[in-house]
């Protein structure tokens, strides 16, 4: 395609009408407008020969970028745009290159489904000597119930309260027994915490991932039993190895034995103190 020659830069009759002059910069119409020199527009049009035709519009250079559908649509004229004379076309500007359509933002893919839980490691032994010591410690307390002569101690305490002048040592003996029982309970609690720590450390050495923490054994100070650590330990081991419930069953058995033994001890103690109670009732105490 050959390029059509365009008129040189200069002032030409305004193709929008009005009788003025508009500047042509050699390639397109500019916004510079001025009145025609001398006389009115009507006089100039009568005295001046017919104005030359508007210079042809230079062709739009052929580009390799394809125009978008929106760019190929005919422009909609504005209501306030000046009307061009009949037979004259408005100057056309070079079409701007089509903008690429904005791509949709990439959203992260959905998280993968959680993998199946790791199989239980049944090759890890879960029983330790320490956990069984924690289970068996309440039985040690039962031994003191049957080894100590509680009948004589209670009888002397009752007589001392009735005849304080005949048994001045009773108050000191009662205080000693109370202090001894408290110290024994503290020793049992301390041993429960110690054995729980040793059991926790041994489970870690065997490869158990985060076994139930031994600090839970301090609940023995509140409930006089290591049941919190024993049950929590069994839950974690059951999840990781599929076993470890034996100490729980042992603790339940020891608890039942303790309850039964205490009930028997109370019955024997009341039976031994029954003559003393009848004697006191006889003398009006």
UniProtKB/TrEMBL annotation:
<feature type="transmembrane region" description="Helical">
    <location>
        <begin position="169"/>
        <end position="194"/>
    </location>
</feature>
<feature type="compositionally biased region" description="Low complexity">
    <location>
        <begin position="78"/>
        <end position="98"/>
    </location>
</feature>
<feature type="compositionally biased region" description="Low complexity">
    <location>
        <begin position="35"/>
        <end position="51"/>
    </location>
</feature>
<feature type="transmembrane region" description="Helical">
    <location>
        <begin position="129"/>
        <end position="148"/>
    </location>
</feature>
<feature type="compositionally biased region" description="Low complexity">
    <location>
        <begin position="62"/>
        <end position="71"/>
    </location>
</feature>
<keyword id="KW-1133">Transmembrane helix</keyword>
<feature type="transmembrane region" description="Helical">
    <location>
        <begin position="248"/>
        <end position="277"/>
    </location>
</feature>
<dbReference type="Pfam" id="PF10708">
    <property type="entry name" value="DUF2510"/>
</dbReference>
<feature type="domain" description="DUF2510">
    <location>
        <begin position="10"/>
        <end position="39"/>
    </location>
</feature>
<feature type="compositionally biased region" description="Pro residues">
    <location>
        <begin position="52"/>
        <end position="61"/>
    </location>
</feature>
<feature type="compositionally biased region" description="Pro residues">
    <location>
        <begin position="1"/>
        <end position="10"/>
    </location>
</feature>
<keyword id="KW-0472">Membrane</keyword>
<keyword id="KW-0812">Transmembrane</keyword>
<protein>
    <submittedName>
        <fullName>DUF2510 domain-containing protein</fullName>
    </submittedName>
</protein>
<dbReference type="InterPro" id="IPR018929">
    <property type="entry name" value="DUF2510"/>
</dbReference>
<feature type="transmembrane region" description="Helical">
    <location>
        <begin position="214"/>
        <end position="236"/>
    </location>
</feature>
<feature type="region of interest" description="Disordered">
    <location>
        <begin position="1"/>
        <end position="120"/>
    </location>
</feature>
<feature type="compositionally biased region" description="Low complexity">
    <location>
        <begin position="106"/>
        <end position="119"/>
    </location>
</feature>
């Amino acid at each position: 395609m050959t390029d059509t020659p365009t008129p040189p830069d200069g002032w030409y009759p305004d193709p929008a009408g009005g009788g003025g002059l508009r500047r042509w910069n050699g390639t397109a119409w500019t916004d510079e407008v001025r009145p025609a020199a001398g006389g009115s527009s009507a006089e100039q049009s009568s005295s001046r020969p017919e104005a030359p035709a508007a210079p042809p519009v230079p062709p739009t250079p052929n580009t390799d970028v394809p125009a978008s559908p929106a760019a190929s649509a005919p422009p909609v004229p504005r209501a306030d745009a000046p009307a061009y004379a009949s037979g004259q076309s408005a100057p056309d500007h070079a079409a701007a290159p089509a903008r690429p359509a904005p791509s949709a933002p990439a959203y992260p893919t959905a998280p993968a489904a959680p993998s199946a839980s790791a199989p239980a490691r049944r090759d890890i032994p879960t029983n330790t000597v320490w956990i069984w010591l924690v289970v068996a410690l309440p039985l040690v307390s039962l031994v003191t119930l049957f080894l100590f002569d509680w009948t004589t101690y209670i009888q002397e305490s009752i007589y001392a309260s009735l005849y304080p002048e005949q048994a001045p040592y009773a108050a000191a003996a009662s205080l000693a027994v109370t202090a001894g029982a408290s110290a024994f309970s503290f020793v049992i609690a301390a041993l429960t915490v110690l054995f729980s720590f040793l059991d926790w450390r041994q489970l870690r050495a065997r490869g158990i991932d985060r076994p139930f923490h031994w600090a839970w054994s301090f609940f023995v100070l509140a409930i006089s039993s290591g049941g919190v650590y024993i049950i929590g330990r069994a839950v974690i081991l059951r999840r990781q190895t599929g076993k470890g419930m034996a100490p729980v069953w042992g603790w339940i058995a020891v608890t039942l034995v303790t309850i039964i033994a205490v009930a028997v001890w109370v019955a024997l103690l009341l039976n031994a103190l029954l003559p003393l109670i009848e004697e006191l009732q006889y003398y009006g105490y």
